[in-house]
Predict the 3D structure of the following.
Amino acid sequence: MNGRILPAADRKKPQRWGRLFPALAAVMMLASAAVAQDMGPQSQTSREQVEKLVGLWKDHFAGADSLPERRTAFRTLMETTPGPTRIQLRQVDADGVDAELMWPARLHHPIGERVILYIHGGGFSSGSIRTHSLLAGSLAKAASSDVLLIDYRLMPEYTYPAQINDALTAYRWLLDNGYDSGNVIVAGDGAGGNIAIETVLRQMQAAKPLPAAVVALSPITDLAATGGSAVSNAESDPLVDKAWFEALRKAYLGSRSATDPQISPLYADMKGFPPLLLQVGSGEVLLDDTLRLADKARQAGVDVTTEVWPGMPHQWQLFPSLLDDADRANQNIAEFAIRHFADKPKE
């Protein structure tokens, strides 16, 4: 694997030293963040694969300016990718939320024991079970886990908080249907990462059972877009730009405040949040959404693992058929899930 992940023990050192030497703690916190971001150099093969993917993305999104047009463009792009293999699946109604439950096509897999609730990205306005089925199937096999992939309500037809409400309904449906919270991982990418985090924050506020861990891939954590990378990475991010983000925010929130912690988890109290894995590309507009949330969660005592992948575009994990680094990133997600499931998969 191209990189290095900051060990949990090292991530906690600044908190321990901070009680005695505040200035030293600040320096160590910065050093820890730097180590966490070190995923090694991008290979030439990786650059070529990303260039091909970005070309496909631009071809499909050319002229797609409105949210409905971008929804169509995303769907047609993902229809060119293969579907998952060696899995079994069934359509389910998760208390009114359409979903697909998939699991590895292996006789020894214990259906109903471990599950990843996956919440797809797409700017709250696009994405579906189809667009994310390859990623979900990959995780099911690599983590030896069920995956519940949901079709939550999309904007502009449905605005905040319909998307979060659907995800919370699906999570509670899992608990009501035999899954122990210690064997549930909540995951999502982009807007789905935002929804995943907000879903768990609502469980915390309700004092109800929390999942074993959370995975957020390039999550939107600050709908106010105050992070420096919104400007510094504007030229290097081929998929997310300021105009799109502003249109998304207006359609999703209307007159609501973008700094409401019920909307943007960057402003939420993270104390007591489950272990958290964050992945993001180094050149993404959303880079600071990840890094600032990681720092805030770590300061609140959360066990945070942060991976910053060099040269990766937004949602690269969706393309294991095109990118070697998607395979590697997805394997990291699966290994993280296995470490945190209460009941580990049997070899």
In short: Confidence is low (pLDDT under 50) at residues 1-35.
